[in-house]
Amino acid sequence: YLCRAAVNFICCEYENALSDTNEYIKHYPDVMIAFTFKGIIFWALKNYALAEENFAYVLEKEPRNPDALNNLGAIAFTKEDYETACRYYSKAIDLLPEVPDLYHNRGAASAMMHKTEIAIIDLKKAEELYTMTGSSLIYKTYFYLALCANVQNRYSDAIDYANKGLKIMPKDSNFFSQRGQAEMKLGKYGEAQADFTDAISLNPKWW
Fold first, then answer.
1. Which one-letter DSSP state was computed for residue 134?
2. Which of 52, 159, 161, 174 is found 20 to 30 A from 144 (Cα to Cα)?
3. What confidence tens digit (pLDDT) does each residue in 73-122 have?
């Protein structure tokens, strides 16, 4: 059941994935990975309350479960409760200190609270670890590093980080926006206009 649920999830058949996961839980109610997966399915369905309920259940049963901590941090981040998100991510980092996603996530939460100095420490650590593993997920960290650089008026650095991100994700409107903001501050109005136009073209509903 759980294997079929995974395939259904990959195919975006979330209701079928949920049905199979529930059937698995009937037979194996003590396997926490099933509840974690159930929470992820609810997350995909944008039912964050039920996602949080399942992740919290896992943490109740396994207080040192780093996935539960990370997932609860993600829920808090979605709710814009960045302080709570940071607390969950910090606990997860204590358990898995070499996982780049956790540093990225905590850095992103700090950045959203405008704690840029703290954010950069985590984001640079994430960059280091992503580079060691060769993961393309580093592009996420480049976005927040560009964001922090713009906040700190380090516009050339913001452009550099945006360029690094665009090499990996050339159709990501966020990088065009961050680069455009930096170019505008540097008086490069033609380049800024072109980047903002590309950002709008890629994501016309973005405010």
1. T
2. 52
3. 999 999 999 999 999 999 999 999 999 999 999 999 999 999 999 999 99
C-alpha dist (Å) from residue 50 to 35, 44, 45, 46, 125: 11, 11, 10, 9, 32
With beta carbons less than 8 A apart as the criterion, state whether 71 and 56 touch: no
Of 70, 204, 110, the residue nearest 125 (C-alpha): 110
Structure tokens at 120: 């950069």
Geometric angle at alpha carbon 10, from 8 and 16, rounded to 5°: 20
Token look-up 């540097």 returns 186
CB burial of 91-107 (b: ≥16 within 10 Å; e: otherwise) equals: bbbeeeeebbbbbbbbb
137: nearest Cα among 172, 118, 165, 96: 165
